[in-house]
Amino acid sequence: MSTAIWVVIAVAVVAALAAAVYLAQTRARTRRLKRRFGPEYDRTLHSQGGRTAAERELRSREERHDELELRDLDPRRREEYREQWGRVQERFVDTPEAAVEQADGLVTVVMGERGYPTHGFEDKVAHLSVEHGRTMEHYRSAHAISGRAANHEASTEDLRQAMKHYHALFEELLSVPGGDRPDGAPGSAEAGPAGEAGHAGRAAPAAARPAGHRDDRAPGS
């Protein structure tokens, strides 16, 4: 073979190897992003209209997240916030719409103390999704119900579900580093809606009680 043919073969081999490396890196990046963002990956894929744009958006979220100065909560603050949540739950019995509004406010306060931005719902979701991607569906659902509640268009059951959704993110934000959580706290989307199990010694949600049983506790307890 002539030198020119060998050069062409060498170039083709190098190009094939480069393409294989690029494909492997792309697949590895996709797997990593899927693991990190969970359901949020598929949502972003749908909203961005393609994998390249979706992964560009998710990597941008990671970069912005890296600029945050996040901090864990002191154990005493965790308990104080859980006590505040308990008071919000008690208000649900008589004023469910107000309780849902207060639950949203309390979640936002905890976000701020952890170091997350607290203005603009989509901006909050973008930053939270990097570490709490599997809980964002809860937060989105709660936010949607809160919007209907503001127009008095949400039923009591809708508001009950909103409390459970807020509680899921609330416990995620309060969770102890390393995954040590109180009994009944949701650890991921697979754990189901927050408050289904409840803390030890507390009553089950109304949905799990016999018909006709008067609900004396808000969901998420």
**Order of helices and strands, N to C?**
HHHHHHHH
- Tell me the helix content: 55-70%
Shape: elongated
Care to count the β-strands? 0
**SS field, number of helical segments:** 8
User: How would a crystallographer describe the biggest sheet?
Assistant: none
Percentage of β-strand residues: under 5%
- Category from helices, strands and their pairing: mainly alpha
Distance between the termini: 79 Å
Rg value? 23 Å
* Mean pLDDT across every amino acid position: 80
Count the domains. Answer: 2
- Low-confidence parts: 179-217
Walk me through this protein's architecture.
With 221 residues, this protein is an all-alpha fold. It has 2 domains: 3-66; 75-208, no CATH class. It has helices at residues 3-37, 39-48, 51-66, 75-92, 96-114, 121-132, 136-150, 156-174. Helix 1 crosses helix 2 and helix 6 runs antiparallel to helix 7. The longest helix is centred in the N-terminal third of the chain and has 35 residues, at 3-37. The radius of gyration is 23 Å and the shape is elongated.
Question: What's a quick, concise take on this entry?
Answer:
This protein is mainly alpha-helical.
